[in-house]
Amino acid sequence: MEHGSLTDSTSSTFSIMDEDHTLANSARFVLNQDPRVAFCGYTIPHPSEKKVNIRLQTTGDAAKDVLKDALQNLMIMCQHVRGTMDTAVVNHRAKNAAEEMDVDQN
Questions:
Q1: CATH of the domain at 64
Q2: What is the rounded distance in angstroms from the CA atom of residue 27 to the CA atom of residue 41?
Q3: Hey, which end of the chain has fewer CB within 10 Å, N or C?
Q4: pTM above the 0.70 mark?
Q5: What is the pLDDT of residues 47-67, one digit of tens each?
Q6: What confidence tier does 17 reach under pLDDT thresholds 50, 70, 90?
Q7: Where in the numbering of this chain does the DNA-directed RNA polymerase RBP11-like dimerisation domain appear (predicted)?
């Protein structure tokens, strides 16, 4: 849900339900790397409530477009990390299997 001015699309607060610090802090980090962002921060209204509010102010682009771009970039980063991790696990298992075969032959 977006809370913002109808006349100023460069400044908005976005409420995201069923999320916590994991998404909010990651999104904040990615948003603050974007040169179009003048300010970005987040709050969690109450610890028992699974909701985050992300406040975003941009230098000119619509806040919702900048948030969408940042979340897409975050998704690409997570996919890259997942792929790298999966490859490392496969390589580690293959190396251990080869080492076990060498031990059995000796």
A1: 3.30.1360.10
A2: 9
A3: C
A4: yes
A5: 898 999 999 999 999 999 999
A6: very high
A7: 12-82
